[in-house]
Amino acid sequence: MPESNDKKRTFLFSTAGVSSEKKTIKDHGALREILVAKGYDIVGDFACKGFNTNSVLKHLAHTDGVLSLMKIEFDQYSQASEANGGECLKRAAAALKRCILREGDFVARYGGGTFIAVLQNVDKYGARLVARRMLHAIRDLGIPNENSAMAKCVTVSIGVAAGGVRHTHSLGDYLSLADEMLLLSKKDGGNRYSLSLLP
User: Fold this and answer.
1) For the chain, what is the total number of helices (H) and then of strands (E)?
2) Which of the four, 9, 110, 153, 178, has the lowest number of CB atoms within 10 Å?
3) Burial class, 150, CB count within 10 angstroms (exposed 0-12 / middle 13-18 / buried 19+)
């Protein structure tokens, strides 16, 4: 799990489910209380219709659906943050959110300079289009990053995990593969995306 600045454990969840929105909101309220009591720092609630980890994966598995999950991370985040402060993060977050065009999909900060995007029933071809859109959107901001050895403006790297959802899949499976692809993008020089299909 990501860590917040004060080193607490953090948790990220949405406030709407597939089958019963009212019940899910109630369940999440109870979950929030439990997590806070255990020392977790809730980094955000996202009222993105249709995203509750267990409900969505189960629903997609039953309907032969697909899921694409992205991890998006600033290239040389510390340099970008030092040069531009919090304004860099705000502008980049807004640009990434503009790349998500469908209701039910979402992008959210995961921790530090990292975001995740979840795209329901979007296959590898659709995920590639969104990833390219995100890369262009961040570059087009033209946020200076003079201290970076990679580029003179802020860029991001993206790792994408995509594929049909099986009953045996968990959100962790998608996150782990997306993380591998993100590291590959970084290794290849950044400012790019890498995609792999979940087996």
Assistant:
1) 6, 7
2) 9
3) middle
Please report the pLDDT score of residue 73 as a whole number. 94
Please, is 103 exposed, middle or buried when counting C-beta atoms within 10 Å of its C-beta (0-12, 13-18, 19+)? exposed
Check: CB of residue 111 under 8 Å from CB of residue 72. no
> What phi, psi does 152 have (nearest 5°)?
-90, 0
CA of 6: how far to CAs of 11, 50, 87, 109, 125, in Å?
Answer: 14, 31, 21, 16, 39
Please enumerate in sequence order all residues whose Cβ is within 8 A of that of 94, keeping only pairs 6 or more positions apart, or say none.
Answer: none
Tell which CATH architecture fits domain 64-197.
Answer: 2-Layer Sandwich (3.30)
| DSSP secondary structure code for residue 19 in this structure | S
**For every residue of 107-172, which 3-state class applies, written as one string?**
EEEEECCEEEEEEECCCHHHHHHHHHHHHHHHHHHCCECCCCCCCCECCEEEEEEEEECCCCCCHH
Q: How far is CA 138 from the centre of its chain?
A: 15
Spans of the chain, pLDDT less than 70: 1-54, 80-85, 147-151
31: left (phi over 0), alpha (psi -120 to 50) or beta: alpha
Tokens read off for 15: 């406030």
